Amino acid sequence: MEIGNALLAGSGSVLFVSENSYVGVPSHEVAYTAGFFDGEGCVSIARYLKRGRPYHTLAIIFTNTDFRALGWLQERWGGNIFKPTQLDGRRRPYGHLRFSAGPARPLLQAMLPYLIIKKSQVEIALEFIESRSVNRGRQGDPVATRKRAALAARMPRPRASLKFIK
Asked: Which of 106, 123, 139, 140 lies 20 to 30 Å from 149, alpha-carbon distance?
């Protein structure tokens, strides 16, 4: 059964077909990745201006203090690990495993059936990836720009810092 670029194999593995390679990830590891993402992941669509025109970009981020977990995820799915530039003495070091829209697509498609908390966000992200302009945004395609702006508006905002009253 075909799921976009992901093919389910009879052995309980998921085979991902990208432009240049094939990567097999067992279904139990896909389920673990989805659970990890539900707890430690983030989907964000950022808006920025370039030469006066609005653009939107998608980022998929896993954050954790255990760099072994981030390395394990990177081995299976790719992405780039970033470490913070400044830490204060009160916080443990943490890292981010980050994916942009194109490389995130197979990961998002694979995780979707297993997600609980962030399922709607991933559905919006996949729709965002599919809404790419025919001319890749070079001329500021107004249809694609409006569609992406509408999807960004549907994405839940990150939780605000909690302020406690003493």
From this structure: 106
